[in-house]
Amino acid sequence: MRKTRKLLSLLLALTVACSLAIVSASAETVELPRNETLYFAGQQWGTVVGWNPLSDDMNNAMAIVQSSGGSRTLMFETLYMYNMLDGSLTPLLADGDYVWNDDQTEVTVKIKAAAKWSDGTAITAEDVAYTFDTNVAIANNKGNTYSPYIDSVTAVDESTVLIKLKLNEDGTAVNPLMLPCYLCDCYVLQKAWIQTVEARCNNDATEIKKDTGDDVVWSGPYTKYYTDDQKVVLIRDDSYWGQDESMWGSLPVPKYIAHVIYADNAAGQTALKAGEVDVCQEFISNVQDLWEKDGLPISTYLDDAPYGVCVNMPTAYYNMEIPALQNVAVRKAIAMAVDYDAINQNAMTGQSPTFTDVPRSCMNPTDGEQSTFDHEAVADLQWAGNDIDGAIALLDEAGIVDTDGDGIRELNGENISLNACCPNGWTDWMAAMEIVAAAGQKIGIDITTEFPEWSVYQTVFTAASQTEYDIFMYATESSTPAQPWSRIRQLMSSEFIGMEGNWSGNFGHYSNADADEIIAKIPSTTDEAELKELYTEAVEIYLTEVPSFSLMYRPNVFYAVNESVWTNYPSQDDGRNIPPTDCTDGYGIAGLYGLELVNP
Amino acid sequence: MKGYRKYFRKKIIWFLITFAAALLVNFLLPRLMPGDPVSAIVGKQAQGVTSATAIQDMYNTYAKEFGTDQPVWKQFFTYVINLCKGDMGTSFGQYPRKVADIIGSAIWWTICLQFPAIIVGWLLGNILGALAAYIRKGFDKVLMPVSLFFSSIPAFGMAVILLVVFAVNLQIAPVSGGYGFDMIPNLSWKFIVSVIQHYQLPFWSIVLIAIGGQAIGMRSMSIYELNADYVKYARFLGIKDRKIVRYVFRNAMLPQVTGLALSIGTMVGGALVAEIIFSYPGLGTTIYDAVTTSDYPLISGSTLIITVMVLIAMFILDIVYGFIDPRVKAAQFD
Amino acid sequence: MKNTIRQVFHSPKFVVGFCIFAAILLTMLIYPLINPGDPLEMIGLGTFAEPGTYISLYDSVTTDTRTFKIADADDNRINSILDSEDRVNMVNWFTVNDIDVSELDISDTDTLLSMWEEYYDSSIKPAGMTKAMRNYYKRLDSNIAKVMNADILTVSEEDEDTGETEEITTIEKTDYVNVDDVANVVTLPLGTDNFGRDTLKELVSACGTSIKIGLIAGSVATLIGLLLGLLGGYIGGFVDDIVMFFTNVFTVIPSFVLLILISYSINQDQRGANTVALVIGLTSWVWTTRAVRSQVMSLRNRDHVNLSRLSGHSLMRIILTDILPYIASYVVMAFILQVSSGILAEAQLSLLGLGPRTTEVPTLGLMMNWAMLYNAHLNGSWWAYFPVILLIAFISFSLNLMNTGMDQVFNPTLRD
Does residue C283 contact residue C222 with C-beta atoms inside 8 Å? Predict the structure, then answer.
């Protein structure tokens, strides 16, 4: 009896071992070959939902990201690619530059002959037109963003697209600046595939946006390979049309693009240090310690501070509905007293140009935007910060003093007590708010910080009426073809006052008729001198009235690369003019074509 | 058996009532949190949109789909009815994934992490505690303060220290994740080894603290038992220690079994800190993310699963207790 | 009573625990007197300054000097920027660029440095060398240049009116300054945290706040536990069933999840340290209730209680005079454990970002939270989180030790 039992258990063990061997032999790639895979971090948080670019909820950071500052063209492609370094548009699916008509009301775009879908069919102008119409019909984010400015997109012939802008009553375009945004923002999807989706969803907009699109047809160099709650992997499509001479001339170098889903920043950075991540889009405090102290082969776009290209300004907005903040002296005094160098050092750990290097305005530090206004005219209005004496003098002059000796100044008999808010967990913003609060204490204004969760914060600061936060933070727009006009509009336009669910700007509800006039004029102005005057005036209003103030300069995407497996990443001094957008966004994707192995 | 029937009936009734109350609390609590999750979803989709009517339309569509525009009691009934069909709703934060989907993929990691950790911690801790009680002298004097110190280290402290020492500095353990960063899950030997490797640090961070706590408890119970009259009597009779010890530890085990059942029930939420620090997938991180994104259905779903597990554990415990504790059996025939 | 206290203080475990706890409390009280100031003041620019003594460079430049001729001063200077790995790398650079190194002795610093000065060119990009490596050589080169300075450094001041620079003083390689003579010397035993705050000062202050929170939470939890346990245990019947029902519901919903939910519901502006303590107390009474209830239930049938009942004493009187004194020792022990777990719960809550506001008072959990947010555990800034963990462990340990000591006194069988 015992012998049989022994025999049976032996047999069982053998069977298990054999099946394991068989299964593992027949399994697909168990391991991604390290020298064929490019690993990312800091883009994908949470599990991928699907592959349908018509939906805004797919949570698919590697495949579906559409943005006027540079869309991610790994799997789906746009007509043009935006380069934030010089604001240029490089043709991708398009053939050559786009052509305006004489009235600046229509644009013609040609499609490359070589452009093909993954199923072999050619990309036609009909695809472009149908994608635009569908976006508008199902009212997804792209549809809602561009339908106020673009009237129609039609196919003149197989390879020519005619885009007609919406017109004002006087026949001029409502906003010609939005057109180049559209060209580098929106993906072009295959008409036949969209029609399949529409058919199976019975043309119901909500269902279309919930469809996971597992059968999607793509045109980009990569497609889906594997996804679960721990990682997402894309594999190169070796029949990619872009290897044609008219485009890149070769295939991108990495065969796999992988992104492990980390729980938080710390895990991603540890993986970067261990060489498990090649390109990291995370804010790494004291990033220079990684190579200076730890001796790791990690580098950033710039070798020295500020290590990256900053393109937006996290801004502290004043709630204009608070009586104390309606007094310009209070607003300016607080803004003057804040120690921006401390914010730069503590919050950004030196990864931002200081306000002495790039004096404040409405423009970001890139050369393109800095050259749009007259620096000398506004030099007197710009302050560098930590000017406690100046702030105190300003307040004393305005008659705002502390009469009851409790250390806090009063306005109209009441202590000036404000809260400074930003979402919980955004560490550099939290540090900045702490420094603003400290500045307030020094000049006799009581400021306390509050860090509500993001889900609460986003409901409150986008409300039609600001009731809870007095000083609160939000980012400005980054680098897009419509800057710096769009940012000025975001900071000062009164068209957003009273809007429920306002994500567009002017969250403090500031109103200035002159500013509105300038904002209305700029899009249709083409004369360079006139434009410069308008921009300079806008900056003057912004720095005098101080409806909000910039706290620091910040990149839109962070960029740190590990050279333990791959090298020849884009960097500032390599002459290729590739922006530091993690080798995936806008023209940054050119980086993928130039990568080399360290040990081939 | 008649006595048992009354015992079980009473237990089942209270079990059901507690379950109903827990269900209600699970449903209500998340909804007391501030923040409107529907605007969270709309917010994501409204970036760059400048038309107020479009945003309002988006809001209305989602509010209707999630039923947040209905009164709370109606929402509760819809919830219960869906629950009976096995549908725990659609997540807000990870829209449009289904809650059952999310929990299903997360729960296996948590169970596989916590279950063995608790059993091993319980076993090792009890053995150590029993030994200390039996041997006394030097072994006890050392073990007692050491295990007390270990059980005083906060859970996150242990996790961070293990992470820093073994993963970052000595680099003998992986830093994060459930399996190797370059692996694709399948049934191969390499993959299983990778999973086991990644399992080590979270496992030990829980076990070390559990051992500490269990050892102390078992030691107290064992000492108490070892000084009982029947032990002294048996010793005087000349019965070998080996035989007596078996009875002693069986008696000392009883309260420990209670502790084990309770910890199995709460294990799901208990690994929260370890999961966050080690970036390990599981129900703990799911709950935490759900709370920070005001994801009602996901929170309700997760806490419901935990509640059900604890209730089942307690129920089984009560039944098992009825069989193994002779005092309960005796009480039935009173 | 007096006898019990004397016995308690004779128990070695209790004494050790008590001493540790007392030491922590004393430090908490005395340290702010020696080192006054706002613990939340940001004195440092930049994050995580290492522990050590920082000497004001400005002041030491103008302080009187003495001349010392130390034999290995030069070697120390060079070795501080050029370790053995750097030398090997320099030789590698020569090899990659086809420079003859066959006669080079790596320990011969002078020849190595002069060869480096002669041949190194930062614009060369050798094939197969990563950008990180090229940058490393650039940094090495500038470090070497710093050390190869002239023998005398000059410190000059810019005249505000004329814009010309005037020499104030010269510094020679043999000049040394007595640290006691320098006007401004800052000692930071635990460096600074991510905000540039003195970590030790913050730690001491945070300790106080955390213990206070633990005390409030512990008191609340013990009171509730005591009340419910007494009622359920003594009165029994339906009241007992209700108490057990509530206890079960609270057991079944994981207390930590409950804590997260409640903390999250309270808006941050109302979330002061006291509120958090209250919330922790309100969610952690379950264990105490059970323990008290089982004790009271076994006490219920004792002779003296039966006697009081027969004598017709009121419920209140029986509970106060016959039951409470017997469970007093148990309640005290439970209180201590509740304080310990209250401190732990606050630390865990703050770690998740759900603790008290950050600008008012530091707590141990908040310090951990910021340290984690800024990845102190990953960039080697051990002073930002390790002392916090140790302190929490020691507070908990000392309280538990006191508890065990008292347990031994009240349960003689557990004595050694």
Answer: no
For residue C267, the chain B residues in CB contact (below 8 A) are: 34
The pLDDT value given to residue A21 = 47
Nearest to residue A351, comparing CAs of A435, A268, A290, A424?
A290
Evaluate whether residue B299 is within a structural domain. yes
CB atoms within 10 A of CB A103: 11
Asked if A568 contacts C132 with a C-beta cutoff of 8 angstroms, the reply is no
Chain A residues with CB under 8 Å of C136 CB are: 291, 295
Q: Report d(CA A274, CA B167) in Å as an integer.
A: 10
pLDDT number for residue C233:
82
Phi, psi at C53, each rounded to 5°: -105, 125
User: Are B306 and C257 a contacting pair at CB < 8 A?
Assistant: yes
C58-87: average pLDDT: 84
Backbone angles phi, psi at C196, to 5 degrees: 85, 25
Q: Which residue has the higher pLDDT, A208 or B129?
A: A208
Reported as a single tens digit per residue, the pLDDT across C23-49 is 999 998 898 888 888 888 878 877 788
Q: Do A346 and C42 touch (CB under 8 A)?
A: yes
Q: Check: CB of residue A585 under 8 Å from CB of residue A184.
A: no
The answer, for B296 touching chain A at a CB cutoff of 8 Å, is no
Q: What is the DSSP letter of B253?
A: H
Return the residue in C252, C350, C403, C411 with the most chain B beta carbons within 10 A, the one to mutate for interface testing: C252
CA proximity to C28, closest of C214, C210, C208:
C208
Q: Does residue C48 lie within any of the structural domains?
A: no
- A592 within some domain: yes
Q: Are residues B75 and B110 in the same domain?
A: no
Residue type present at position A569: Y
Q: Are B265 and B314 in contact (CB under 8 A)?
A: yes
**What contacts B164, CB < 8 A, 6 or more positions away?**
C377, C382
Which of A182-191, A420-429, B167-176, C129-138 shows the highest mean pLDDT? A182-191
Q: In terms of residue numbers, what domain contains A436?
A: 315-550
| Chain A CB contacts of C357 below 8 Å | 448-450
Q: Would you call B60 an interface residue with chain A, using a CB distance cutoff of 8 Å?
A: no
The pLDDT assigned to A22 comes to: 46
- For residue C348, give both structure tokens: 């865990």
Residue B29 and residue C258: Cβ atoms within 8 Å? yes
Chain B residues within 8 A of A49 when measuring between CB atoms: 94-97
Domain count for chain B: 2
pLDDT of A5: 59
In A172-243, at which residue ranges do the beta strands (DSSP E only) sit?
222-227, 231-236
pLDDT over threshold 50, residue A25: no
Both C209 and C103 in one domain: the answer is: no
Tell me the nearest-neighbour CA distance from B310 into chain C, angstroms.
6
Look at residue C72 in the predicted model and tell me its pLDDT. Answer: 83
Q: Which helix (H) or strand (E) holds C110?
A: helix C109-119
Question: Of the candidates C186, C206, C234, which is a domain's last residue?
Answer: C186
What domain range is B78 assigned to?
Answer: 37-87
Q: Does A295 touch chain C (CB under 8 A)?
A: yes
Q: What share of chain A is helix, strand, coil (3-state, %, to 5)?
A: 35, 15, 50
pTM of this structure: 0.83
In whole angstroms, what is the distance from residue A367 CA to residue A305 CA?
17
| pLDDT beyond 90 at A588 | yes
In this structure, the answer to whether residues A319 and A435 fall within a common structural domain is yes
ipTM over 0.95? The verdict is no
Domain of residue C362, residue span: 2-43+194-414
Length of chain C: 416
Instruction: Quote the CA–CA distance of B236 and B233 in Å, as a whole number.
Output: 5
User: Cβ of A270 and C378 within 8 Å?
Assistant: yes
Q: CA-to-CA distance for C235 and C57, rounded, in angstroms?
A: 74
Question: Could you say which DSSP state residue C233 is in?
Answer: I
Enter the tokens of residue A555. 């990149």
